[in-house]
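User: For a teaching handout, I'd like to show students what a predicted protein-ligand complex looks like in token form. I'll give you the sequence and the SMILES for zinc ion. Please answer with just the structure.
Assistant: Understood, here is the input followed by the structure.
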Amino acid sequence: MELPMINTNYHTHTYRCKHGEGDIADYCRAAIDNGIKIIAFTDHTPTPDNWHNEVRMNLDELDGYCANIDQARIDFPELTIIKGLECEYRTEVLDFYRDTLIGEYGIEMLVGAVHFLPYKGGSTGLLGKPIPAEALETYTQIAIDTINSKLFSFFAHPDVFASAYRSWDENAINASRKILSAAQEADTVLEINGYGVLKGEIDTPEGLRWRYPLENFWKLASEYDIEVVVNSDTHYPEKITGGMQECLDIAHKYGLKLADMQARLG
Ligand SMILES: [Zn+2]
Ligand SMILES: [Zn+2]
């Protein structure tokens, strides 16, 4: 076993999101095998309106998700386990996040992320086909709203836009600066996300690179007073630390400050 480079992982999924495998206990065993001491479960939240239900758990699965986390705390006392969910900022479900997820279900940590954009009267994903500059502007605005809401313990893969907007041009630089400024203002932690490393490289005007993390984004981040967290965002127990070393290398390369998430979570 290789020594872990970092012993926390605040972003993991389960089979319930319909694009992952394994359940809570599988990830706990993998965490222990890989030297992880603190693990947060942050599966894609259900919503009352079943928005993009094809990539998130159903509302009636939330009880089982929480119960299995509670059980894991008994079965794996050597781990600190955090009960979280990954959410998209949408004004129509913010009350549900606050009152139901945090209030009723005792969810301890919400992660903010943008995976879909309203586009041409419909909705477009960020991992598929390239998007034009106007869609990048939409992404940026939702990212800023997510950050400014202060509802989320960190903003996941802020640079995920680079998967669909592939040039590092003025538009990308402006979008990045707006997101970084907002994070600095709101003191919201930004995540360097290892899952992008596992997705392989894509062709861009500047050559082959990962979809994310986008190195130019994190280089720019070094100009801002922000804190970062390195997570795997794994959807497979056997990839529990996937991409995290590469993300940590980026943080070190650009002198980015790692957030003390436990202190922040209180
Ligand atoms: Zn996912
Ligand atoms: Zn995720």
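For the handout, you might add this sentence: The domain at 8-265 is CATH 3.20.20.140 (TIM Barrel).
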